[in-house]
């Protein structure tokens, strides 16, 4: 070989000899938490079993879960928290509390990425496109809020008494991409009745199990939501 070509071949050899980082090594996992909105007391106060006497129901539960994830996965874990803002704006008119100040304080304390959303379709859009999903895969999805067996109801009894205009229905779950999830990912709905239908539709559509309740759940101040009755159970 002519001597003048030797530096070129040496350079090419060094390039091809460099280790190529694997796709797995470049991937990051994300923990997605969604807080639906609370009801308005102008309607709920007259019911035999009123919802959401305490407006912090779905905020406090999310905070407990965020703290749990931080303790388990460390300060560098990517946690995104999504709060249905219109419900809290309306409920704030009934309360003297600085609701958004309290919500923002959770974000500051735990270093999460806080997103306020306003439409029912937002959650699917975020799951699919909120991060570059070729590199950032979702490890866990948690939902705190009102639900029935077929859907999450982000504004139940908030804009309309005992009804909802913003939701994620089980029939729309098929729009969630199957390639956005980390290996071993799972989801959990902490709302009522999800385990009676939506959990199965979720797993069928996404390939990811969703833990949900058969029966009602109850929200408390110091622990994550639990089953409301002895007859209830968690299922996938």
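^ Assign residues to that structure.
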């Amino acid at each position: 070989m002519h001597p003048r070509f030797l530096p070129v071949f040496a350079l090419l050899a060094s390039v091809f000899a460099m280790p190529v980082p694997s796709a797995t090594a470049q991937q990051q996992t994300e923990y997605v938490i969604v807080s639906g909105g609370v009801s308005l007391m102008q309607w709920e106060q007259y019911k035999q079993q009123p919802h959401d006497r305490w407006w912090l129901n779905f905020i406090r539960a999310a905070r407990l879960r965020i703290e749990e994830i931080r303790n388990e996965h460390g300060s560098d874990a990517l946690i995104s928290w999504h709060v249905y803002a219109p419900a809290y704006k309306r409920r704030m008119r009934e309360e003297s509390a600085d609701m958004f100040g309290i919500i923002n304080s959770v974000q500051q304390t735990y270093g999460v990425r806080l997103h306020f959303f306003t439409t029912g379709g937002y959650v699917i859009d975020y799951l699919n496109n909120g991060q570059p999903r070729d590199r950032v895969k979702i490890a866990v999805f948690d939902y705190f809020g009102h639900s029935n067996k077929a859907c999450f109801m982000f504004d139940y009894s908030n804009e309309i008494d005992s009804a909802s205009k913003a939701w994620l229905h089980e029939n729309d779950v098929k729009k969630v991409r199957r390639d956005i999830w980390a290996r071993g990912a799972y989801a959990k709905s902490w709302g009522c009745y999800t385990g009676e239908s939506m959990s199965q539709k979720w797993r069928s559509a996404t390939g990811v199990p969703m833990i949900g309740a058969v029966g009602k759940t109850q929200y408390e101040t110091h622990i994550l939501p639990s089953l409301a009755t002895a007859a209830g159970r968690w299922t996938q």
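The first strand starts at residue 28 and ends at 35.
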